[in-house]
């Protein structure tokens, strides 16, 4: 009994230490992370929230289509009953939830002065009080700080063609490997090496779940890849998708989850034609020595030129659709969570803060002091207890 108590005391000390570490972390984040009143209120009331990235606004589309898309995407989320939280950096402050004026600032900003901001770039952009559009990796990271379980985008970054020479592998994939936020996307563009991208996600332990009729992995502008790449896991609707996300969170798996949703058929482009357009765009990038983070924005612009605006229209349509699906999943997730919390409060981890103190708190609860009053406390324990 004495031994057990000593272990328990050590455990309490460890919990205290973790507690103070977390508090410090949170207070640092509070200074630089600002939530809009909508998001703040939704968080307080446990309403479904969908995080949205902003590189698509700053570097993915030209003005004014970018602004139109950003506003439309938010409306789609609201219409489904969830709260949109577009994440972006303005004057070094990280905003979770942007108003229309702030969206406009990002949409109109010079894409050279505004930083395309992945995990790597956040600290510099914050310290130098710059503006930044957050990529999938940065959006996931920030969403996770606020315990937002899901985000939507157009397509994630991936392993670039020729990565065996250039080492160009998007940090989105690494983020998916260690940040527990689900990402709803239309797969990856075939400007990337799709097979290698899926291999990389497998190595990182990231579930890739196709939502739709077939098990073909979508290729952004096209409903399937040129090579008709397949995925292992499929679900047919948002409700089933939410079940997987819920299981992932209940198990405490610290990896992300990729939901792949094909572009709506009426906007889909022909995969053979796109393959050709992409090869031309890649040639053009090579001849202009475009590299690193500039590759994706350059190729997007080139493809828009080559396809006479068709690729941009497809891009806008698929993002709206992904946001809609993400909102449905978020709604289902909240429902499932409140149902299971009614059934068994201790089993529901989704509304609770996901940090070790809560687990510690739960353990404290399971010592059930109330019940212990019915048990005779041993002498050794009570002696030790007073020390
Ligand atoms: N795919 C698009 N448009 C985009 C992006 C991807 O169709 O704007 C952006 C996303 O924000 C993604 C980022 O996270 O590009 C990946 O960039 P990179 O490949 O440099 O990691
Ligand atoms: Mn890259």
TrEMBL record:
InterPro entries: Indigdn_synthA-like (IPR022830), PsuG (IPR007342). GO terms for cellular component: cytoplasm. It comes from the Eukaryota. Keywords: Glycosidase, Hydrolase, Lyase, Manganese, Metal-binding. One of its GO terms (molecular function) is pseudouridylate synthase activity. It holds the Pfam family Indigoidine_A. This is Pseudouridine-5'-phosphate glycosidase. It comes from Melipona bicolor. The lineage of its organism: Eukaryota, Metazoa, Ecdysozoa, Arthropoda, Hexapoda.
